[in-house]
Every structure is written in C-alpha cells, then in structure tokens.
Amino acid sequence: MKPEFDYHTFIDNATVIETVEQLESFLKRATGSDIIAVDVESAGFYRYYARVNLIQIATRTEAVIVDPQKIKDFSSFQTFAAQSKCMWVFHGGDYDVSMLARDLGIFIPRMFDTRKAAEFLGQRELGLRALTEKYLGFTLDKRLQRCDWSRRPLTAAMIEYGLLDAVCLVPIFDFMVRELDDLGRLDWTMQECEYIAREARESSPPLRNPYAFRIKGSSRLSQRSLAVLRSVWELREKIAERHDRAAFMLLSNLALLEIARQMPRTVSGLTVIKHISRDFLNRHASEIQAAIREGMEADLSGLEPPPRPRDRQELLNAWEGELAKALREIRDDLANKMQIPASVLAPTHALYDLAKVRPESMGQLIQSEILHEWQARLLGDEFLSILQQEPPQKIRKGRRRRRRKVS
Fold it and tell me: CATH number for the domain including 270?
C-alpha cells in the first residue's frame, strides 16, 4: 500500500501566471529542473475552435497555472522549451504536445508519456485517475473534466483540479521509471515516447470532411432531404464559427434531421420542430429558411461519399494473408508472455504491410520503418524466419471440365 501523496504544499502555494514578467520569472526558477510535468486544458467541448485555454506545470518544488488568455507573448516559453535538457512529462501527451506547438509555437523536445508507460507495464487501467490510485494512494476527482476552461475568472475548484493533473505526474514518473527499468522496458518506452512527440510536433490540422453533414440517422433520408441537410448543416457551421461556439450547442443534430425531413418553408413550420431553441430561431429563422430553399434547389450530385478504400488486409493475396497470420501468432504469443497489449509490440496494420513488402534482412526491416526500431529488433528474428519463406508455386484456379460425350 503506497503512502498517500500530500499534494497540498503544491496547491496551497501555486501561482496563476497572467503576465509575461511572471512567466519569465517562473521559467528562470525552473531552469535546471530535471523534470517538468505539463497538462493542457481546452474548451473544445464548448467552443468551435479548440485552443489551449490553460497550461498547468509542475516541477519537483513548484506548481503554476499559465493563462494563455491573458498572456499574448510566449517567446520566453518557446526559447525555454527549445533549450531545455529536462524530461517533459505528460499523460496521453500527443494531444497536449500538438496543441502547444500549433497554438503557441512551443515545441517539446523530449517527453515521457505516463499512459504509454502504463501499457508497457501491462496495466489494465490507463487513465490518470487509475495511476494516482495505484502509485499515490488517492483518487482524482474528475467532476470538472468537462468544465468550460475558457471561463474567467478561474474558480478555486478549477485551479485545484487543473494543478493536480500536473502535480501528480512528477511522483508517478519516478515510480514508473523504476518499474520499467527493472523490467528492461525503459528504453522501449522512451523510443515510443519520442515517436509520439515527433508526430505530435509535426501534425497538421485535419482536412475538413466534405461529408461531415451525413450525421447519424441521415442514411434514411431521401436524396432531396440530404441536400437540405447539407445546406442547413453548413449554415450551422458558419454561425458556430462566427460566434466561436460548439455547433451542436447552437442547433442539435436531431433538429437538423427534422428540418431535413420536413423541409418547412415558413417560420411557423420551423416552430413545430421541438429541438430548435426559441432564442436560436428568433436570431436565425430567415437564414434557416434560405438554407432550406438552397437545399431544395440544389444539384443532387456529391451527396454520397466515395467508396471506402480497401484496407490493408483486403490487398493481400492468399499467401500474404498466411504470412500475416503467422506474424500475428508470433506477436500475440510474445505479448501474452510479457502481459502487455499486442498492439504495443506491433500494430496489426504493420503486420499486413510486412506481409506485402517482405523485407529479407534486419537492415531492410528497420529501413522499411513499418515497425519502430525497438519493435524490429525485438521481433525481427522470428518475423524474418516467416517472411523469408518462398511462396508456393501458383496453382491453377480449377480443373478444366471434360465435355460429356453425347450418345
């Protein structure tokens, strides 16, 4: 039983940083720290634009909250991150690292992800709450998880909730590093964390899906109703973007479907739709009517999404399918022995790619980058023994039928 972790010292003495001068002062104190734990909060559930609304940071001696809604110049933080030699610790950090890079130009050079570490340790529960229970002896209160982090002023409860997620990561990191080192898996974890950080730093915003209007329940609509749905959905997006509000909070998907089914041409027709709020209707009734007319007159082409691309497994021939099956058995057997998820050792799509490419040596296997280097070295010998097998000679699809003699 782990002794209960006393976080009050950090929480009671924490600072909310709202000026460039305060930020620079903290970063000066943090210089030389061996570890910096970070958590990021976003109000993406409430806002159209998901952006960094709060940054919680903890070292071994101090915890702070940085408010990006008050601070407009993050050049000192950018320089600090670029020059730092410390370990940056996150939980499920791919999102946080990409948000810091995209929104604030802060690029994390070296990171440790406690969620990924939990996978390598074979833990079933991967959430931060489970880790605090296991290592620190208390349960995180997650009631504010869906809080609107763009709201100001910050309440005492918001400050404590946000800080705890960062403060807990410091001792959890210490426990996990020792366990991983004892199991000989620390180097694998660090390699995997580097891949996570690199992809997060280099990620670009996803392209907008032109078929996003095809929401759940739209498959039962007629083509004309689909055209109306598309037009009204696009209107909702424009209004949400204009006011920086989550689109579903302005007009629900149920309301979109009912408008598309009924195609009401008057305001009185719109009022009978239960899922439209009176305030939204008062503000945007004329725009909704215009969108309905646009959909009723629109060309019906482009409503159906293109066929789903064939997945990797479907692209394999019978022999390659057998190779992939043999690779999967090797991977699963080792994962069971190590008591970790099989996908940690090698994702299934990588097995299909290997069966297709069939590298012939360890050098080719590593250079293919289908597996990460630690995965290739761990699984390579057994995988290559399968991949180096020669395929059987082509067998004719079927025997030629003999013609019956007509007597």
Answer: 1.10.150.80
Please, which residues have CB within 8 angstroms of residue 168's CB and are 6 or more apart in sequence?
5, 7, 37, 128, 131, 132, 136, 140
Give the C-alpha separation, 355 to 318, whole Å. Answer: 11
CA atoms within 13 Å, Cβ hemisphere of 163: 24
In terms of Cβ atoms closer than 10 Å to its own Cβ (0-12, 13-18, 19+), residue 304 is exposed
Token pair 């980058």: residue: 369
Q: Are residues 266 and 148 in the same domain?
A: no
In a domain, 306, yes or no: no
pLDDT digits (tens, 9 = 90+) for 293-344: 999 999 998 899 888 877 888 889 999 999 999 999 999 999 999 999 999 9
Q: Which two tokens stand for residue 239?
A: 């209004």
Contacts of 169 (CB under 8 A, 6+ apart): 37, 39, 58, 89, 90, 91, 114, 128
Within 10 Å of residue 64's Cβ, how many Cβ atoms?
A: 23
> What's the structural domain count of the chain?
3
CA separation for the pair 276, 271 (Å, rounded):
8
pTM of the predicted model as reported, rounded to 2 decimal places: 0.87
